[in-house]
């Protein structure tokens, strides 16, 4: 990792786009948890709906099975909601019942 990336202070108010660039390990962890479709456990589709992605958009995101739909969702959100912060993402994850992922973003030493 480049020195300038290590020195970038990230907070809960940091934009999602900044997090995706400077903390790819967090992105991967979220994708591992949200990509799985399991009964009774909300996944990336639930988050997408919560973030106002329509059903056609969700279908487009799931078309390429060789790439993480969660990461594609985050890429889409960078464009459609450029001011989206990690704090807002945590709130939405909590509202779909994924407190485990809220905890991951809090306890993963990703933010100051």
Automatic annotation (TrEMBL):
<dbReference type="InterPro" id="IPR011029">
    <property type="entry name" value="DEATH-like_dom_sf"/>
</dbReference>
<dbReference type="InterPro" id="IPR000488">
    <property type="entry name" value="Death_dom"/>
</dbReference>
<dbReference type="GO" id="GO:0007165">
    <property type="term" value="P:signal transduction"/>
</dbReference>
<feature type="domain" description="Death">
    <location>
        <begin position="43"/>
        <end position="101"/>
    </location>
</feature>
<protein>
    <recommendedName>
        <fullName>Death domain-containing protein</fullName>
    </recommendedName>
</protein>
<dbReference type="Pfam" id="PF00531">
    <property type="entry name" value="Death"/>
</dbReference>
